[in-house]
Amino acid sequence: MVFSIKRRQQDIKALKEETLDVLIIGGGITGAGTALQAAASSLKTGLVEMQDFAEGTSSRSTKLVHGGLRYLKNFDVEVVADTVQERAVVQGIAPHIPKADPMILPVYDEPGSTFSMFSLKVAMDLYDRLANVTGTKYENYTLSKDEVLEREPQLKSEGLQGAGVYLDYRNNDARLVIENIKRAAEDGGHMVSRTKVVGILHDENDKVCGATVEDLLTGETYDIKARIVLNTTGPWSDTIRQMDAKSDAAPQMRPTKGVHLVVDREKLQVPQPTYFDTGKNDGRMVFVIPREEKTYFGTTDTDYKGDFSHPKVEQEDVDYLLEVVNNRYPSAGITINDIESSWAGLRPLISTNGGSDYNGGNSQPITDESFDNVISTIEKYQQGEVDRITVEDALKDIQTSNSESEANPSAISRGSALDIDEDGLITIAGGKITDYRKMALGAMRTVVEILKNDFNKTYELIDSSKYPVSGGDINAQEVEEETEKLSQMGVEKGLSQSEALYLANLYGSNAPKVFALLDEVEQIEGLTLADSLSLHYAMEEEMALTPNDFLIRRTNHMLFMRDTLDGIIEPVIAEMARYYDWTDEAKANYTKQLETAIAESDLKELKGE
């Protein structure tokens, strides 16, 4: 399959001429996952994204596929069960992307602590059973205070009680999106980035029948006809619904901004992902995660009312995270000048979901009194002082406290919602990356039902829990072994071991296609052989249309390889300009876009540079 600018032209022609079964607006993870299921199920599928795929929100997460351990403090068993089970599904269909990376959770004796050592162990044991890892190498365990400090000597010792270690997964969010997009395109879907919806079309019965879009590369405006239009635009969901003149849907989104900061690993040394209370008694927790040769930490969670396309890291975000991290790692002494890169993203939270969980159930926080009663009862049960019925009664008597307040954006639900407006526009919003396939499945069941009832068109959905994304055709139970085998193919073609392994990890079962480019692509002056191959593959097979697409979302170069970024900017731009035959003006514009993105990532304005 070729997923290049030539394919884009063919897809635009098809979008103009065909009547689609479903037009998906939004190329983040939810739209991408829905497009994969639709195209694989033989629906005539189109997707338009006004930016690059994943650019809006789905490349700006904490880059984990995690299971929500902290929700077990509220005994949200159903939420956590759904999440860890779905995480296992995602790992099965995209085994080259989520990678097991056990998390350490230090416990401090301080006001507002999420866990005590006892409650953490109870939660982790239940978590393991839900995740089906009891008795495996990923089973949880606890560490004493001394063992924690031996593992993380920079960690604050005062008040430290110990820690728990449990299974979690690192993620490459933007890669997960593009691999879904590529599979949908391979199955016949018309996936077009940099195409903005400017109007919703209606038929003679005032029912939605497509959209008017603008090609942001050429300025051309055209109509796309579709039997069903699905809005998967995340924070922009209300914007699309309000664009629909035949609908008066009330706004439902309350986006919050999350910020992450990156420093050199030598500055903040953590051997594995670490997750802890902020120490500010504000109900929040923060991640500190090693990646490549860097360490990143976040996230903030603040209401956001600015430009959705351009959330920025602000001084108060930096101050908050530095205060939290320097409190937990006192010897690190991190300042703003130590920050090498950063990113800010929006969470598409739904304000009207009240206390609902990721998948629609009730998950309001329980009161401290109820929580203490449950823990005390469990402790007595383990000591043989009370029977099981007493524990069950304590769980039944849990009282919730409504903290879903205007003042607490962190408490707003991460739940998803699927709405059908009066004129037929379908919107799916909210949720989180871990649940993307499940959200897409819910949307597709609705789409298929409407196609059958209203258009007499019958489709049978594929089993998306077993349908791999592009690059995912490897054994999920033997990822390390298969990745090693793939890398050896690269070594045999002339790559170094480290380069071949890097590419095999990045592209999974597509790695042989990347290695095959060695037969036709010469090493680009100023780039490594691996980067030369990666760049050409991104342009020919992954619709990377700008330097930002390649350096931020097809790879993580800007975020986690900042040391070598400056040296490759010029050769990357020069090769893309040659490949795409850019005018001098276009080349200057793309160069300026990249310089702006780097300056923002580097926090140059905040640093006074």
TrEMBL record:
GO molecular function: glycerol-3-phosphate dehydrogenase (quinone) activity; glycerol-3-phosphate oxidase activity
Keywords: FAD, Flavoprotein, Glycerol metabolism, Oxidoreductase
Reactions accelerated catalytically: sn-glycerol 3-phosphate + O2 = dihydroxyacetone phosphate + H2O2
Any single biological process term in GO: glycerol metabolic process
EC number: 1.1.3.21
Residue stretches making up the Alpha-glycerophosphate oxidase C-terminal domain: 465-586
Pfam families referenced in this protein's UniProt entry, alphabetically: DAO (PF01266), DAO_C (PF16901)
InterPro entries: DAO_C, DAO_C_sf, FAD-dep_OxRdtase, FAD/NAD-bd_sf, G3P_DH_FAD-dep
The organism's place on the tree of life at top rank: Bacteria
Keyword NADP: no
UniProt cofactor(s): FAD
Start and end residues of each FAD dependent oxidoreductase domain: 21-354
Family the entry assigns: Belongs to the FAD-dependent glycerol-3-phosphate dehydrogenase family.
Name the record gives this protein: Alpha-glycerophosphate oxidase
